[in-house]
Amino acid sequence: MKICIPILMAAAVLDALLLVPGLGSLSAALAAGSLVLVVLAAGILAFSKSPARGLEAPAPLPPPPPANQAEAEIVALLALLQEKGRFLDFVMDDVTSCDDAQIGAAARVVHQGCTRALREHFSIVPVSEAAEGSLITVPTGGAAGEYRLTGKIGGQAPFRGTLVHKGWKAEAVRLPRIVPSSSGGLPVIAPAEVEIR
Question: pTM of the full predicted structure?
């Protein structure tokens, strides 16, 4: 690359000599020499193994997110719940013919697996640390959406009432990144399993 600088400077000198009066008879030779030097420098740059400074190849771009990124992320969460707790197998199955003991046994497996999936991928904590059924004061100016007031609401905050449900909030999410499918559609929740015999 550094060799291109003197070659291009020589081409510039030849071009400058074209402006000197009295060298008109050499103008064709000077122009041809300048052109040869510029082509030579361009060839060196084009075929060199390491790119010139400032001409580095750009870093590859990450694949674009699917057009329906939010839906794909929801499907990915369902896939985790299915993988760990067979969640969809349980809720999509018709349980009307099952007795309570069968449903309870299946619910225990689903509960354990889904709990494991949620603990691996989310940090979930209660909104209120108070015991349900206790009297609490809702903090003034708290985060929007953390408390839902029910019953006879009137007057100004702070509000005092009985904690019916402690609520849940996510402090961190560690879901896998979504890889766009080749079709551009939503990812598969769980592939169909086929046993070949």
Answer: 0.56
